């Protein structure tokens, strides 16, 4: 079972360690609400990479992840979990979002396990990905409307040295 630590605070506030900020998102190329909107405001170059990726692949992205640098903070990477075709009120059903969340986290964990360093979209990594903290808000529970407890059950399935820092306000 993975370790889930709950932290009260602002996930976007600078931290003294390298980290991957994980969020669930749509395949339509829109960071228009919730944590995605906050990421877009703080890291517009990262949003551009995400939008271009969505334009190229669309709904084929469901169940995958995209790891991109923030282009602003050298110790921050952003992991997009593609869990719904569309955002807003047009989001997918909860059961589909949960299935794609699990697939996308599997994809991210595989990326972390196999990446030995080097550039990601031209940005040099500070350390190997295995040394980055995995941090996320209560994904899926905002705009997608999935009860947090259901996504939490997905996170608890992971074993080994996997731990998640979940931010609450």
What does this 3D model show about the protein?
With 169 residues, the chain is α/β, with parallel strands linked by helices. It has a single domain, classed as Leucine Aminopeptidase, subunit E, domain 1. Helices cover 31% and strands 25% of the residues. The chain has helices at 34-42, 44-57, 94-114, 148-156; strands at 3-8, 19-26, 65-69, 76-84, 119-120, 123-124, 133-137, 163-168. Strands 1-8-7-2-4-3 form a 6-stranded mixed sheet, with helices on both faces. A two-stranded antiparallel ribbon has the order 5-6. A hairpin with a 2-residue loop joins strand 5 and strand 6. Helix 1 packs across helix 2 and helix 3 runs parallel beside helix 4. 36% of the residues are buried. Its EC number is 3.1.3.84. Pfam families: Macro. This is ADP-ribose 1''-phosphate phosphatase. It comes from Naumovozyma castellii. Belongs to the POA1 family.
């Amino acid at each position: 079972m993975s370790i889930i630590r709950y932290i009260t605070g602002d996930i976007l506030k600078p931290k003294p360690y390298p980290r991957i900020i994980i969020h669930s998102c749509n395949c339509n190329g829109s960071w228009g609400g919730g944590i995605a909107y906050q990421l877009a405001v703080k890291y517009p170059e990262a949003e551009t990479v995400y939008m271009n990726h969505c334009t190229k692949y669309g709904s084929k992205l469901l169940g995958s992840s995209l790891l991109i640098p923030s282009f602003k903070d050298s110790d921050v990477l952003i992991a997009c979990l593609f869990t719904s075709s569309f955002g807003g009120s047009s989001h997918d059903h909860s059961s589909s979002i949960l299935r794609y969340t699990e697939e996308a986290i599997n994809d991210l964990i595989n990326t972390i396990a196999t990446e030995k360093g080097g550039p990601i979209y031209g940005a040099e990594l500070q350390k190997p990905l295995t040394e980055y903290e995995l941090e996320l808000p209560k994904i899926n529970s905002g705009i997608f409307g999935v009860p947090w407890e259901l996504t939490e059950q997905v996170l608890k399935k992971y074993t080994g040295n996997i731990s998640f820092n979940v931010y609450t306000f």
